[in-house]
Amino acid sequence: MNSGHETTNNAPATTNNAPATTNSAVAATATVITNIASLVTNDPSLGDGTPLGLIQDAAVVIDGDRIAWVGEKSKAPATDNRLDAGGRAVIPGFVDSHSHLVFAGDRTAEFNARMSGQPYAAGGIRTTVAATRAATDAQLDANVARYLAEALRQGTTVMETKSGYGLTVEDEARALRIAARHTDEVTFLGAHIVSPDHADDPATYVALVTGDMLDACAPYARWVDVFCEKGAFDGDQARAILTAGRSRGLLPRVHANQLTHGPGVQLAVELDAASADHCTHLTDADVDALANSATVATLLPGAEFSTRAEWPDARRLIDAGATVALSTDCNPGSSFTSSVPFCIALAVRDMGMTPDEALWSATAGGAAALRRTDVGRLTPGARADLVLLDAPSHVHLAYRPGVPLVSQVWRSGRRTV
Ligand SMILES: [Zn+2]
């Protein structure tokens, strides 16, 4: 909509003075979704006063790409367009703040060997690096589009994604250029592993990542990330990489404490990273640091599932007061799932989360991990990203694992699924 139209139009929707909860704030041309059995707003000041801000027998009004009104259906304003949710639950679209979608090939044989108790000698990430370097731009672009569409069908309306399978200046910049065509949440992860080209000389690779590679990649990315782990990058290397990225305007996030205890979480907090991701092996001091910071602990149970590893302890983090996000880590090696509902079910079953907490972490938590306030919530003014479930309550996401409950997905006010 162009601004000339808005300024010459006296319709109530263009005046911002009225509280959003009054009917006069809603344009007649808006759409109401009504007959919602339960609505998750993620605003504790709405509905039942819990963090989910649940409203029973609810309605939502969408005006353009925004939420214009939420409340009890009996109080919904009149609009031209009406959709009957038929007693379904409505939740915010999932915000998946951690994935690695720019890759080619897959690692079926590696997974099969791991799950069959057989030794497997191939090169892990290096296998994907080789396949990704060999792929054309069109092949990589099609892969990103395919996995994003797959995630959207499962309710994900915002998805971060990273480079990290190129590991040369040209291949990393290419990955980010392709990712940026599909999402605003793009992360430079040149420091995924030390490039095989520099295996014997990590210092030279860190210099490349913080120099020419960063120069080529910064224009396409919002975030800078590093895999801070034994066998990848130590604390000093990770600090150098994140600090260099920050000096180029990128915001830090960290792959931290996935496989072992290490300095990643403390570094993330020290640098005010938006998120420390994995957080599987934490000391009490790590938990404390997260709880007393703005750094979100992003848990990625698809990785533990796919490697038969120890689960991260969500209960411990939440009880300490940390903000927890839940994401897929979608990647071909350690977590080849794009399904947030699957991760919610794992988090509830195996990580000590309640169904309410898991849903919050997969929506508002993901938004916090991306420092976004316009998504992950269904409140007046938020982006109209929402999911209708073939269920009367969000609890069914964990209660009915593996069942395709996503019935409709709306993104920016338009029905996409
Ligand atoms: Zn990852």
TrEMBL record:
<keyword id="KW-0963">Cytoplasm</keyword>
<dbReference type="InterPro" id="IPR006680">
    <property type="entry name" value="Amidohydro-rel"/>
</dbReference>
<feature type="domain" description="Amidohydrolase-related">
    <location>
        <begin position="276"/>
        <end position="393"/>
    </location>
</feature>
<keyword id="KW-0479">Metal-binding</keyword>
<dbReference type="InterPro" id="IPR032466">
    <property type="entry name" value="Metal_Hydrolase"/>
</dbReference>
<feature type="binding site">
    <location>
        <position position="165"/>
    </location>
    <ligand>
        <name>4-imidazolone-5-propanoate</name>
    </ligand>
</feature>
<feature type="binding site">
    <location>
        <position position="165"/>
    </location>
    <ligand>
        <name>N-formimidoyl-L-glutamate</name>
    </ligand>
</feature>
<feature type="compositionally biased region" description="Low complexity">
    <location>
        <begin position="7"/>
        <end position="21"/>
    </location>
</feature>
<feature type="binding site">
    <location>
        <position position="100"/>
    </location>
    <ligand>
        <name>Fe(3+)</name>
    </ligand>
</feature>
<feature type="region of interest" description="Disordered">
    <location>
        <begin position="1"/>
        <end position="21"/>
    </location>
</feature>
<feature type="binding site">
    <location>
        <position position="329"/>
    </location>
    <ligand>
        <name>Zn(2+)</name>
    </ligand>
</feature>
<feature type="binding site">
    <location>
        <position position="192"/>
    </location>
    <ligand>
        <name>4-imidazolone-5-propanoate</name>
    </ligand>
</feature>
<feature type="binding site">
    <location>
        <position position="255"/>
    </location>
    <ligand>
        <name>Fe(3+)</name>
    </ligand>
</feature>
<feature type="binding site">
    <location>
        <position position="258"/>
    </location>
    <ligand>
        <name>4-imidazolone-5-propanoate</name>
    </ligand>
</feature>
<keyword id="KW-0369">Histidine metabolism</keyword>
<comment type="pathway">
    <text>Amino-acid degradation; L-histidine degradation into L-glutamate; N-formimidoyl-L-glutamate from L-histidine: step 3/3.</text>
</comment>
<keyword id="KW-0862">Zinc</keyword>
<protein>
    <recommendedName>
        <fullName>Imidazolonepropionase</fullName>
        <ecNumber>3.5.2.7</ecNumber>
    </recommendedName>
</protein>
<dbReference type="InterPro" id="IPR011059">
    <property type="entry name" value="Metal-dep_hydrolase_composite"/>
</dbReference>
<keyword id="KW-0408">Iron</keyword>
<feature type="binding site">
    <location>
        <position position="331"/>
    </location>
    <ligand>
        <name>N-formimidoyl-L-glutamate</name>
    </ligand>
</feature>
<dbReference type="GO" id="GO:0050480">
    <property type="term" value="F:imidazolonepropionase activity"/>
</dbReference>
<dbReference type="InterPro" id="IPR005920">
    <property type="entry name" value="HutI"/>
</dbReference>
<comment type="similarity">
    <text>Belongs to the metallo-dependent hydrolases superfamily. HutI family.</text>
</comment>
<feature type="binding site">
    <location>
        <position position="329"/>
    </location>
    <ligand>
        <name>Fe(3+)</name>
    </ligand>
</feature>
<feature type="binding site">
    <location>
        <position position="107"/>
    </location>
    <ligand>
        <name>4-imidazolone-5-propanoate</name>
    </ligand>
</feature>
<feature type="binding site">
    <location>
        <position position="98"/>
    </location>
    <ligand>
        <name>Fe(3+)</name>
    </ligand>
</feature>
<feature type="binding site">
    <location>
        <position position="334"/>
    </location>
    <ligand>
        <name>4-imidazolone-5-propanoate</name>
    </ligand>
</feature>
<feature type="binding site">
    <location>
        <position position="333"/>
    </location>
    <ligand>
        <name>N-formimidoyl-L-glutamate</name>
    </ligand>
</feature>
<keyword id="KW-0378">Hydrolase</keyword>
<dbReference type="Pfam" id="PF01979">
    <property type="entry name" value="Amidohydro_1"/>
</dbReference>
<feature type="binding site">
    <location>
        <position position="255"/>
    </location>
    <ligand>
        <name>Zn(2+)</name>
    </ligand>
</feature>
<comment type="function">
    <text>Catalyzes the hydrolytic cleavage of the carbon-nitrogen bond in imidazolone-5-propanoate to yield N-formimidoyl-L-glutamate. It is the third step in the universal histidine degradation pathway.</text>
</comment>
<feature type="binding site">
    <location>
        <position position="98"/>
    </location>
    <ligand>
        <name>Zn(2+)</name>
    </ligand>
</feature>
<feature type="binding site">
    <location>
        <position position="100"/>
    </location>
    <ligand>
        <name>Zn(2+)</name>
    </ligand>
</feature>
